[in-house]
Amino acid sequence: MKILLVGEYSRLHNSLKEGLLKNGHEVTIIGHGDFFKKYPIDINIDGTFTKKNFFLNKVRHLLFLIFKIDLASVETLIKFNKNKGILKNYDYVQLINETPFNIGNYFEKKLLKFLFENNNHVYLLACGDDYRYISYSLAGNFPYSTLSPLLKNPGLKKEYRYTLRAVSKEQKKIHDYVFKYIKGVIPVSVEYNMAYRNTNKALPMIPNPVNSDLIKMQELNLDKIKILHGINSSNYLKKGNRYFEEALEIISKKYNHKVEIITTKDLPYNEYIKHLLSAHIILDQAQAHDQGYNALEAMAMGKVIFTGAGEDFRKHYDLKNKIVAIDTSPDSAKIAKNLEELILNPEKIIEIGKNARKFIEEEHHYKEIAKKYVDAWKEHSC
Question: Where would I find the Spore protein YkvP/CgeB glycosyl transferase-like domain in this sequence (predicted)?
């Protein structure tokens, strides 16, 4: 079958593509590579020339300030139009988000309109910030979430301005437009499954695909335990990085001779992965109920991940007493205590790492997940 994957976050669509290719399908990814992360894209329509040209970028910001027109979005539109001939008649098209191009609603709708008009079976992932998920979070339906800091302190609206765009009147129009034409929406994690439960066109959750064939279990030398805290500054508040920083301050004072703490900021994926390979413990998210994509890849390496792995997650995967990740809530003292337990009992790092690897192979294997996507697309394309 011929499949078009639209947009890329955290390598999700690349891993799905690898699974689909292994299963004998033809796959193309179109998008912008998620900015500084620079994920592989077959048809890259990012407004790169405008953004990298000093003069044009200055003009771009001035025009946007005055007319709210982004020259980079215009460049994306031009690049998209040049590829129209190869963006038609796919068996299945999947959008990674209801605004997969992230170029402003006017241009976004133009590109989406073409895809809907020229392809019959279009699906949507519940992934990233979207109208339904952010609305659900803002309503306080989660005990804590990426929006908890804002709910506690409405004065943080400026810091959350990009996230809050997802619930604007303009975004609601895009949301309704997309839902009018898609065949179904597929949640990618426990959180999105909760938010989309009983929603029109919601399909059963399909976990993120992870290409564990490419990811090897790491040999662990525990003479000095390495803890990695990777910061994406645009998501600092949402991921609860403050709680990790406070916990690490406690640990560094108490166990400086036993640990090496590595903090990175806004690294491209290929550079970040180098640090990931050498670490034993990864601090991923403190306000989530499932794992982010980087966390899943780290679990495949046999790392111990501090992330969302609580009751809903354990129930969904029927984990019972098996620990595959350290459930992490916005509580610095608790994070420090959990880190301390691993530092004092390094054999637990090995045990949890093995559990994590097995979990990825059983629940997230890219070829099996690719089959689940194809089955879902076929079942709901009538």
Answer: 248-374
64 within domain boundaries: no
Structure tokens at 85: 């001939």
Query: What separation in angstroms does the CA of 156 have from each of 56, 152, 166?
Result: 32, 9, 16
93 and 40 in a common domain: yes
Residue in 367, 275, 285, 359 with CA at minimum distance from that of residue 326:
285
Domain membership flag for residue 74: no
The low-confidence residues of the chain, meaning pLDDT below 70, are 33-37
The CATH number of the domain where 251 resides is what?
3.40.50.2000
Total Cβ atoms within 10 A of residue 158: 7
Please give the residue range of the domain that contains residue 340.
225-363
Produce one character per residue of 183-196: b if its CB has 16 or more CB atoms within 10 Å, e if not. Answer: bbbbbbbbbbbbbb
- pLDDT value of position 61: 83
Residues 154 and 266 in one domain: no
Closest CA to 233 of 266, 268, 272: 266
pTM for the full predicted model: 0.92
Q: What is the pLDDT of residue 67?
A: 74
Nearest to 275 by CA among 218, 336, 210: 218
Would you say how long the chain is, in residues? Answer: 382
Burial of 10 (0-12, 13-18, 19+ CB in 10 A): buried
Query: What does the pLDDT look like over 163-203, one tens digit per residue?
Result: 999 999 999 999 999 999 999 999 999 999 999 998 989 99
